């Protein structure tokens, strides 16, 4: 966890509070001047870098706060990432679909193999290639009630 340097961390360190003529040797005075950076600042900085680079446990993202974003829970970057993953996991119910995109003609397409894309909407003649249903975020239609050979998508905004 990233922590601030406090007054207690600085107590008794450095040259503050030393007499004008401290009675220290040159080496002792150099060490006293370097005491705060070497014994307080550098260790705190290195601990912060370790916390931010961590990929174990809470991870670095769990140590960085995040302002509220409408529709996402979590107070940290990690919390927001987890909330986004939940939403993304609900977007495509079929494990067979590898990717969905909007093509250059502003049509939605899908692929099973990551290479060959097929239009989801109607073609130039108006014939539906693959029927699909757009649902509001959070809405769920049980598998037993779904139309066979139809794709179901949850939208980011209700009614979109």
Count the E strands: 5
Whole-number mean pLDDT: 78
> What is the N-to-C succession of helices and strands?
HHHEEEEE
Distance between the termini: 41 Å
Strand order, biggest sheet? 1-2-3
Describe it for me?
- With 160 residues, the protein is an alpha+beta fold.
- Helix content is 28%, strand content 12%.
- It folds into two domains: 7-53, no CATH class; 90-154, no CATH class.
- The chain is built from three helices and five strands.
- A hairpin with a 5-residue loop joins strand 1 and strand 2 (108-111).
- The radius of gyration is 29 Å and the shape is rod-shaped.
- The two termini are 41 Å apart.
Name the descriptors.
two-stranded parallel ribbon, 12% strand, alpha+beta, 160 residues, 2 domains, 28% helix, single chain
What's the quick description here?
With 160 residues, the protein is an alpha+beta fold.
Topology:
Elements (H helix, E strand, L loop, with lengths): L6 H4 L15 H28 L23 H13 L9 E4 L5 E4 L5 E3 L12 E4 L15 E4 L6
Parallel strand pairs: 4-5
Antiparallel strand pairs: 1-2, 2-3
